[in-house]
Design goal:
With about 80 residues, the protein is mainly beta. About 0% of the residues lie in helices and about 50% in strands.
């Protein structure tokens, strides 16, 4: 997964949190376009079934804001 925001004076990061049921398993923050990573525990029986994602933006003058969270659910 990757995130890119086109806007002078802004930086964005994407926050990913992996869950197995209601148990938080892992989390990562990506802030470079095209950045890739592995999330979750490969040794966990059954793996993960949900990833919560949220994008946050910071301006060069220090203003900070996050968009709504959303969930990607594995069937």
């Amino acid at each position: 997964m990757s995130v890119s925001v086109e806007g002078p004076g802004y930086n964005a990061d994407a926050r990913f949190t992996a869950f197995a049921g209601s148990t938080k398993v892992d989390s990562e923050i990506a802030n470079k376009p095209g950045e890739t990573f592995t999330i979750g525990d490969p040794n966990r029986v059954g793996g993960i079934n949900r990833i919560r994602t949220q994008v946050c933006v910071t301006s060069t003058d220090g203003q900070f804001g996050c968009g709504a969270q959303w969930n990607d659910i594995r069937d």
